[in-house]
């Protein structure tokens, strides 16, 4: 089947087609076909052109019959002419019959082409309908997925709130305990240092007095030994005080570490809040895209 048909375009009226039929007849086409008229005009359908040609022939037939009427006084003269005209009419009839058969074949071909186009259109419609149903099903699944994601986001928000509250409570409790212990240790350390200073002053004074009483050396020597032992004891106490101070400083460092850990927990809290915001933004963006797609696919 030929696929070089021109598009039908606007519908062709008989008044538009008649001048072209006359031009075809004047150009030597005694019986123009629907295909001839279509090739000249370049638009319309074969069936419409065939109707216009049939109407033209019906209008022209009475004119030809009138031309065949002979005057009574010239019947014998025109008898031969009549026979000749009848012979020509027969040839015209046979030619018309042949053209009608050709037009019929053309119409059958056109009908088959239209049937194929109709079937192709139905197949495209069925395919488009199937694709639409698939898209609708996919959109329904997307809506369900969005609802599920929203529920998960709400659960994640609630869990994050509980975790953040628990972390805050634990951090506040730990910091308060560390601060209290540090204050107590520092107060005890100050008392030990003051006591050590007082005892040290006393020991120094006693040593000076011992040096001034050389005449009482034996007794003072014994006193000195006693004071030296006291001094050594005080030195030990001072060493212990230094150790306590080191412990206090270590506890201060521990406090700083707890504070650093608390700041890390605050940073982690901030990160969780940022992740929650990003997740909410992603869900909102996904929802907007699904709504836009649903509107774009709406027939």
Characterization of this structure:
The protein is mostly helical and 299 residues long. It is built from 5 helices and no strands.
Task: Quickly list its features.
0% strand, 5 helices, mainly alpha, 299 residues, 87% helix, single chain
Ordered list of secondary-structure elements with their pairings:
Elements: H1 14-26, H2 34-41, H3 46-67, H4 77-212, H5 217-296
Helix pairs in contact: 1-2, 1-3, 2-3, 4-5
Estimated structural class: mainly alpha
Which ranges are low-confidence, i.e. pLDDT below 50, for 5 or more consecutive residues? none
User: How does the overall form come out from the CA principal axes?
Assistant: rod-shaped
Mean pLDDT: 79
* CA gyration radius, whole angstroms: 59 Å
Please give the number of β-strands: 0
